[in-house]
Write the structure tokens for this entry.
Amino acid sequence: MRYKASLQRADRNSCDSGNPSFVHLAADIGGTKTNLALFVEEDERFELIAEERLATRAVAGPEQLLADFLRRHGRQPVSAGIGVAGTVAAGEAHAVNLPWTIRQTELRRQLGIPHLHLLNDLAAMAYSVPFLREDQKARLLPGEEDAQAPIGLIAAGTGLGQALLVREDGHLRVLASEGGHRDFAPTTPQQWRLAEHLRHRYGHVSTERVLSGQGLLDLHHFLLAEEGIVPPDWLVQAAAAGNAAPVTDHALAGTDAACLRSALLFTAVYGAEAGNLALQYLAAGGIYLGGGIAPKLLPLLRQSAFAAAFRDKGRLRPLLARVPVWCITDTRAPLIGAARYAAVRARSS
């Protein structure tokens, strides 16, 4: 079934004067929340026409979640990109924090969407990168962008995701990664002590043990212990809830000096790992920071700790000085990428 013909049949009401508008469904399914959106494509421009945020576990399964959303908005898309926070292989998505196994073929049949594709949530975000407007990202470090070189994506949030975006024969391709689980590489005496602190608690210390929401909480507890400061009640409550937001809030507001020191240490580790990603893949197309933490810490990421750690690579420092770095500020990026991915796959089928 060709893309335009099938899409015209799926969305006859959107056609006018032979110029159809193509409807795409995008989803970003996480362990606690799911973001859903419908986009209309006209002349390769994508316009958001509907968006919802729902509790993932409030429904029995993904087919109900998606079907109810489409029913509420009265649109039947021909393509769908479903981003899932977990591993996607052979048309199946497996996520530790989800109560379901999501199968691509079953969703296609149940929803009646012929061009429905599952993809990892970070891959979905990566596919958005070439289409982000200037107001959807913020530059952290200047550089000389190489339009033909790979682009690296690193995203700290609930966990730490990494991905690579490459161009092959004029097409975009995302290479998935579990690089967030590789060994944490301390770069200062304080970070070595932090690694030892985490090793006693967790055993293996991955980079995600530091660069994540829980990692920021653990980092802050480590710093307080080193400085002989008793954790305040608000921190004990935040830690019990797994909520690192109070640490960043106090750091940005300047209301807690220890929180500021913790946040700056966090940004230094973030910078070092982003620089490692740029070196590993020669990502001269740029490095992008995604996830929920980077936009919130944007004022601190623009300070010297992040930049110094990003470029502190010995003899290869001049190479890192040429790599530009951005922060993705639009929370819809995974939805934009999922819709774009689905549209491209539909055209090629």
User: Anything to note?
Assistant: The two ends are 7 Å apart (CA to CA). Residues 11 and 75 are 7 Å apart (CA to CA). Residues 257-281 form the longest helix (25 residues).
